[in-house]
Design goal:
Blueprint: H1 26-37, E1 46-50, H2 56-63, E2 68-73, H3 76-89, E3 93-97, H4 100-106, E4 111-116, H5 124-136, E5 140-151, E6 162-168, E7 171-177
Parallel strand pairs: 1-2, 1-4, 2-3, 4-5
Antiparallel strand pairs: 5-7, 6-7
Length: about 180
């Protein structure tokens, strides 16, 4: 995997093979950040990266100037790798080793972007729970967005707060926003 833009543009990051991850492809990541680049000034936002895995998405935010990034993953190897990489590149990334659902139930942190990349084989109920907890616990700042990465075989358009989705190969990003009542 590589960092696409910003301070660390073109830097390759090689994750250990034994991590239980499926990193977002460079093509999909570049497309996602083209969308986000039109919505936010990266240096002015905060990011919560759920199911962070290798930290791929967080490194991209950090490279583009985001200084408030929190990664959550339950795998100790993933957290250790993110901490090591963040230290090497002097990136402002905080990590929390936790089951994402337990974290979301108790979280009080608010962010402009909440990015979730759960396993592609999650059930619609599990995807729905992520959305419900983020909005019920008010984890998004005003004008914030929840983005869930999922397989093209999963349709999240019927979930509350769904706004739109973008498809890139086998990967889909579904966007959820606070709607006016």
């Amino acid at each position: 995997m590589r960092i696409i833009s910003g301070t660390y543009k073109r830097r390759k990051i090689v994750a250990p093979r034994n991590l239980p991850v499926r990193p977002t492809t460079d093509m999909a990541k570049e497309s996602l950040f083209n969308i986000l680049n039109n919505l936010y000034y990266f240096e002015d936002i905060s990011v919560l990266d759920l199911f962070a895995g290798t930290g791929n998405i967080s490194y991209e935010f950090a490279s583009r100037g985001t200084e408030n990034i929190t990664c959550v993953d339950q795998n100790f190897g993933c957290i250790k790798f993110i901490n090591k990489t963040a230290d090497e590149f002097e990136m402002p990334i905080q990590t929390i080793k936790s089951d994402v659902f337990k974290f979301l139930e108790k979280a009080t942190v608010t962010s402009d972007v909440v990015f979730a990349d759960p396993p592609y084989d999650f059930s619609n109920e599990q995807f729905s729970t992520i959305v419900e907890l983020v909005f019920k616990n008010q984890l998004l700042n005003e004008e914030g967005v929840l983005i869930i990465e999922h397989s093209k075989h999963t349709d999240l358009s019927d979930l509350n707060h769904f706004s739109y989705s973008k498809s890139y190969g086998g990967c889909v990003f579904s966007f959820f926003e606070l709607t006016e009542s």
